[in-house]
Structures are given as C-alpha cells and as structure tokens.
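Thanks for the sequence, V.! I ran Tripartite tricarboxylate transporter substrate binding protein right away. Repeating your input here for the record:
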Amino acid sequence: MCLPVVLSLSSPAWSQAAAYPDRAPRLVVGFPPGTGPDVVARTVGQRLGELLKQSVVIDNRAGAGGQIAAQAVAKSAADGYTLLLGEVGSIAIAPAAYGKLPYQPARELAPIAELVRSDFVLVVPPASPARDLKGLLDSARAAPAGVNFATFGAGTPGHFGAVVLAEQAGFKVEPVHYRATGDALTALIAGDVQAAFVSTALAVPQIKAGKLRALATTAGTRAPQLPEVPTFAEAGWPRIDFTAWFMLFAPADAPPAVLDTLSRQAVAAMQTPELRQKLQDAGFTLVGGGRAEAEKRVRSETERWAAIVKATGFKGD
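Predicted structure:
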C-alpha cells in the first residue's frame, strides 16, 4: 500500500524540489545597475539569499524596456535557478503592444511574489517655464508641433502615460524613446526634451538635487518623499493613475514545490524591517504578496493595459 508513495517521493522532480536550492540562483534584471529595479533586485536578493542559504547572483540584462531579460528567463531551464525581476512593461504591456514578442509571459513565466510598486512623477527640466501641471498643459495645447516626452522605451508605462495624458488634456505628444534610462534622464535634465513620466524611486533624488521639477504624481495620495507635489487626482485628472510594479518570476514549468519555496521565502524577505525601510526610502511602496496575489495582479494588469494599448492604436512591430 505504501509503494506508490515511495515511488512518488523517489521521482527526479520531487528530489530536485526537496534539495532546492543546492547552488546559487540567478536573478535577471532588465535595467542597468543603479536604477530603481536594480536597487529592488539587490536589496531583496540579498535577504532572499540569506533565507535560501544560497547567494542570489544579480544579472543585469538591460534593454528593450525589460524585454531582453524577460525573454532570457522565459527561455531558460525551468529549474528555479534562473529568476526574473519582472515589471509591468515587459509582462503586462508588451503582449498587447508587440505582435511579434519573442516570449509569452502568460504561458512561459510563473509569478512568484509581488515585491514593490512605484508610482510615477510628471517631471520637467529645471529651466522649463512650466511651474505647475496647469502651466505645462496650457503651453502644450498652444504648441502646434506638440510636446516632446522622453520615455525609457516604446511600450513602457511612461510612454503610454504620456499618450493618455495628451489625449485627455487635448494636446499633441511626440514620444522620444531612449534605449537607456541614463540617456533619457540626461536629455531631460539638459532640456533636450520637455517632460517625462519618471518613477518616484528614480525621480526623487533628481528632484531633491534640483535637476528636475515635479508637477504631479500618479499616486492615490501624495508621496511621502514629495509631500509638496500634488496628485493628478487633486489637479483634476483622476484617470492618470498608473503605477509600475515589480515581481519575481520563474519559467512556468518549474516544479511547483520550488515555486512555493521561492514565494514563501520572498514574502518572508519582504517583512524584514531593514529591507522595508531601505526600499521605502528609495521611493517604493512595499507589497510582499504571494503567488495567488501575484497571479491575480498580472491578469488584471494585462487586461487593463491591453485596453489602453488598443485605444492608443500603438503597434511596436
């Protein structure tokens, strides 16, 4: 009567899950070192490694708004040793924006845990004549050639945020897509472009240093780091309410027991007081939701962004 159980426990899949991890997992990040996503990956990765009793190696594969990293993990071995710090652009927006996307998030990537979220700040160069949101929108409506918005890549939240704002406020927008986050920030600070939606985590240091001016945030309430900056809702634009989120993913065919282990330890890592303080100070909102919550979030966000992409008519290929 016990034989089926013995055979089940002796299977290679069970043995692999029971021994996990027996070497260092690799966490792939689709953005350069020093950016907000990299800060999340390194902060969470260090604590996750302590809980797993294996170092978590950070692998930065920047480019294409996170799609290079997402593709690399989606096509990797489904053993739980190659993980992705996935974000809204490459996971929820890209499937609707790119008809020839070389990976399919819904089929090839399994959500493990939602870690943090980050709202966006509408910023302008310090020399901009726009002192507030109304000033920017008034000048944008009066500009026949439109307003240049920097983005961190076509199909990213900042890109569609600019398009949606332009449609609602009645002005023409010309997105200027940059391959690297640093290039976009440099152009924005120099005044080569007129505005951009930048994540709170990335914007706060630049705003505090006087290199950018904040006009409004997409958050539901004012950001603790920027208490003087109004929300779009306060300014009369409640539909400008998008956020970026960051989750751990693994290849979809990874053993369920391995996914459960990763999810449990990732959620535990997010409860560490020092980790929470560091990420909050960096401008992130802490989440720490497990597999069920992460899966639900991905489904709802994919549906929401698909509708936005369709409404804009954007096609990336």
